[in-house]
Amino acid sequence: MTIRELVKEMDLQVFSGENGLDREIEGGYVSDLLSDVMGFSQEGEVWVTLQTHKNIMAVASLKDLAAIVLVKGLKPDEDAMEVSNEEGLPILGTDKSCFEFTGKFWSLIN
Amino acid sequence: MELVYKVEGGDFNKAGHASSQIKRVLKQLGVPPDVIKRVVVALYEAEVNIVAHAWRGVITAGVNESGIRVVLDDEGPGIPNIAQAMEKGYSTASAEVRDMGFGAGMGLPNIRANVDEFNITSEVNKGTVLDFFIKF
After folding, report:
1. Integer Cα distance of B28 and B32 in angstroms
2. Which residues of A touch B17 (CB under 8 A)?
3. What DSSP character marks residue A18?
4. Cα–Cα distance for residue pair A70/A47, rounded to 1 Å
């Protein structure tokens, strides 16, 4: 499944990084601890978090993640969106809780 | 080849910049992706450690055909008890830094898990030198 398909299926908001919507999804990772994501996420995963600052982009880009999903209606910082656009690594948003989003996302890709 | 980057303590806006530049160079050199992945984890954690804990530091990455050696030399408060700092979950990061999702006490263990050689020395109120090597 691509990020574009995920956006459609789960009615996600695309904040930035639209040129990366055709990235392929290899899985998902859920964490708000940056070192946890740094150490244990895998390339091509969608990262679900409530962190909204620019450093999430550094982590996502260094780990070659497919996209970031912000939960509970949170919005990314302006400078995070700038990096997301430059790198073509989308930041998406949902109004759902982390639990609800992740449950539906899991069943979509498994 | 030698790459040198300056890192400012407290400047989270630029955290990861050196790691990203070095990753790019390793890709251009055709270093295997699995090796790059390990370098990136160790390097980013070490770079963030300077930003989160030190006043300033210099990252020097030396690349040759056998591997990459990275030395992170900072001026800062130092680490009084290195064994304790190496424990998973131990951190002295500020509340502000923790709110950003850093300071979980996973940095140094993450670094050690991804490198082939690891050495850390520190002097209180002077600084810390972290040195690691990853084989290609």
Report:
1. 11
2. 58
3. G
4. 9
Domains annotated for chain A, with CATH where assigned, are 3-101 (3.40.1390.20)
Interchain pair A34, B102: CB under 8 A? yes
What is the distance in angstroms between the CA of the first residue and the CA of the last residue of chain B?
15
Taking only the tens place, the pLDDT of each residue in B19-69 is: 999 999 999 999 999 999 999 999 999 999 999 999 999 999 999 999 999
Chain A residues within 8 A of B42 when measuring between CB atoms: none
- Does pTM top 0.90 for this prediction? yes
**What size, in residues, is chain B?**
136
How open is the CA angle B52-B58-B59, to the nearest 5 degrees?
Answer: 95
Using CA atoms in the order B126, B120, A32, B39, what is the torsion angle rounded to 10 degrees?
A: 120
Give yes or no for a contact between B25 and B63, defined as CB atoms under 8 angstroms apart: yes
Q: Is the Cβ pair A53, B100 closer than 8 Å?
A: yes
Helix axes B107-114, B33-53, angle to 10 degrees: 150
Query: Contact at 8 Å (CB) between A87 and A20?
Result: yes
Distance of alpha carbon B48 from alpha carbon A59, whole angstroms = 11
Distance CA A56, CA B128 (A): 26
Interface contact flag, B100 A61, Cβ < 8 Å: no
CA distance A58 to A10: 25
CA dihedral sign of residues B66, B26, A27, A101: positive
Enter the CATH code of domain B2-135.
3.30.565.10
DSSP tally for chain B: helices H, then strands E: 5, 5
pLDDT digits (tens, 9 = 90+) for A53-109: 999 999 999 999 999 999 999 999 999 999 999 999 999 999 999 999 999 999 999
